[in-house]
Automatic annotation (TrEMBL):
Residues annotated as binding NADP(+): G168, R169, S170, I234
GO biological process: L-histidine biosynthetic process; methionine biosynthetic process; purine nucleotide biosynthetic process; tetrahydrofolate interconversion
Name of the coding gene: folD
Organism, as annotated: Cohaesibacter marisflavi
Gene Ontology annotations for the cellular component aspect, listed alphabetically: cytosol
Protein name per its UniProtKB record: Bifunctional protein FolD
Amino acid sequence: MTATRIDGKAIAAALREKIAVEGKKLIDETGVVPGIAVVIVGEDPASKVYVASKGKAANECHFKSVEHALPADTSEDTLLSLVGELNEDDSIHGILVQLPLPDHIDESKVLELIRPDKDVDGFHPINVGLLTAGAKDKAMVPCTPAGSLILAKRSLGDLSGKSAVVVGRSNIVGKPMAALLLAESCTVTIAHSRTKDLPSVVKAADIVVAAVGRPQMIKGDWIKDGACVIDVGINRIPAPERGEGKTRLVGDVDYDGAAEHAGFITPVPGGVGPMTIALLMANTLTSARRAAGLEDLDYAALLG
Ligand SMILES: Nc1nc2c(c(=O)[nH]1)N[C@@H](CN(C=O)c1ccc(C(=O)N[C@@H](CCC(=O)O)C(=O)O)cc1)CN2
């Protein structure tokens, strides 16, 4: 079997276009301009690229977009004060603090200060609790898992009764992904570094979500024939074949090997990553619509 490649880049672009139309409609009909503030601390090159992409996407969606770039030695108190100001700013509907933060800043303190209704990352304990309690319609859902779910549903249709394995138990991806799959009535296993016989656990799954942060760790012959493989990993590895000192991005899955078994598979780059940014725009629009007293949009349905 040769898998169908899931074109996350194209799907994300289509979704951003739909959001731009809805953003414009909201502005024209209510005067509410969706506003997002992205805060970055330090000089991490990858984080700078992601933050720039978020600003560009927000502009294309007709949103107000504000970037706060703080030096790496910014104190925790300074960052907390900024978040406090953004919480009070009525023109800002979404606040995102780019992760990772420098070691001297307590990440959970910062994330817990963001007002839950402006928490477009979905990392605040209130949003985590709503999602875990099965009330995802009231929550802000983390962008990467929400985007991954859209890709899986577009590939397989109804996920009810399917077996899913999420490899990785991070708060950002693994745990919310498992909650979303459970809400779709999948039978969900969360696998991690202590899981015994990981290849067999993966082999049993109709849906494999790889979010472990280890380049090409999941091998092709671990994948069940016809499975849907969603690769969340973004790892930069040396690529001497491209020239001295060159690198390339790979996922957590051995793409070529897995594509021989899977029915559907996301590439890296061009799979889940672009969906993360599209869903951030979706969450910002949701927050602005809620502030205007409007109901939530169904972004999967909007995509058609
Ligand atoms: N506050 C947050 N911090 C981080 C998150 C997050 O969701 N919220 N996720 C990641 C980084 N991230 C968004 O912030 C992100 C990562 C990757 C991509 C992406 O589009 N990747 C491209 C490849 C880009 C490249 O060439 O490097 C792809 O996969 O095609 C978007 C967003 C950690 N921090």
